[in-house]
Amino acid sequence: MHTILATRGADQLLTDVPVERLPELAADPEWTVWVDLCAPITDVEKSIVSDLFKFHPLAVEDCFEEREHPKIEDYGSYLYLIAHGLQAGGTAEESESVEIDAFVGKDFIVTHHSAPSRSIAGTREAVLRTGMPLRKGPVAVLHAILDRQVDGMEIMLDHMEERITQIEDAVFERPESTQIEAITAFRGNILQLRRWMSKQREVVYRLGRREFALVGETEALLFRDVHDHLVRYNDLLENYREMLSSILDAYLSMSSHRLSEIMRFLAVFTAILMPLTVITGIYGMNFDLMPELRHPRGYPGVLMVMLLIAAGIMFYFRRKGWLGRPPPLPPPRPTEPPPPRSTASHRRS
């Protein structure tokens, strides 16, 4: 599947150019051609890249394969670039990237993507409406694509910030084991984004410092602006990762505190029942010579003793702060005012 657009001057714009006319337009330096290739790729699209434009075989091989890291290579008369953007519908815990391959020459640009790309579609719509940025040249089209990729990243980062707030509120309100899964998936997605975003930042930085002859001063300024956005987004991702680590530490601390509270309650409960269990165990032996066994008030007496022991233990634990609220801190001691300074002047001998 392919789409071919071409412009010449300020008034000529060709849309849906047939592939048979592409060699004529590509050979005329007055025309600026944009060829967009999208999966599924047929032999016609492969012949455009290999036979018509005669790109390097290694670049053609990379173009039709999935690459994890962005890069840029200079082949003299053209540049080969790999960039990544975000697919629509991604979440903070899981997001998919879209690889865009671009061959940029003096009067042509050939793009390829195996999945639908919002940045490609938005740039194509702008060209169909006004002819821009294709009228400014292939490098301007490349900048428009990369700039729209950055806009898509900003939307995702805003969604991530909202998601972090939701997770933080849920953790402090009621910690649950499912929140660990969300935090772990969130952190993994951030690491994946930072992995290719840092590489893409280097690619845009090379375009912005005019390392390549095809990039003019005006385009370099635009690429430097895109680079600044990528630097800021990379810093935001690092901040988000640290925030998630802090939330995870808070979750583990709260879970540990909750577990300690449960263990303390069980320990107090066991300590109260232990002497009562000893008493009932002694009087459950049923020996004939036990004096209290046939006493008329033995049963209520033993129950009263057990009740007094349980109440005494609970009172002791509560006074120590092991049961219920801890005792209040003692009031601070009043500080004594410092002695007044002597106003008499001392002369040195």
What key phrases describe this protein's structure?
349 residues, alpha+beta, Beta Polymerase, domain 2, Methane Monooxygenase Hydroxylase, Chain G, domain 1, seven-stranded mixed β-sheet, 7 strands, 55% helix, disordered C terminus
Describe the protein's architecture and organization:
By secondary structure, the chain is an alpha+beta fold. It folds into two domains: 2-252, Beta Polymerase, domain 2; 260-320, Up-down Bundle (Methane Monooxygenase Hydroxylase, Chain G, domain 1), CATH 1.20.58. It is built from eight helices and seven strands; from the N terminus they run ββαβααββββααααα. It has helices spanning 22-27, 43-52, 57-63, 118-130, 138-173, 177-208, 217-282, 298-320, and strands spanning 2-8, 12-14, 32-38, 71-74, 78-86, 97-105, 108-113. A seven-stranded mixed sheet has the order 2-1-3-7-6-5-4. α4 (118-130) packs across α5 (138-173). The longest helix is centred in the last third of the chain and has 66 residues, at 217-282. The protein is rod-shaped and about 120 Å long. The model is unreliable at 342-349 (pLDDT under 50).
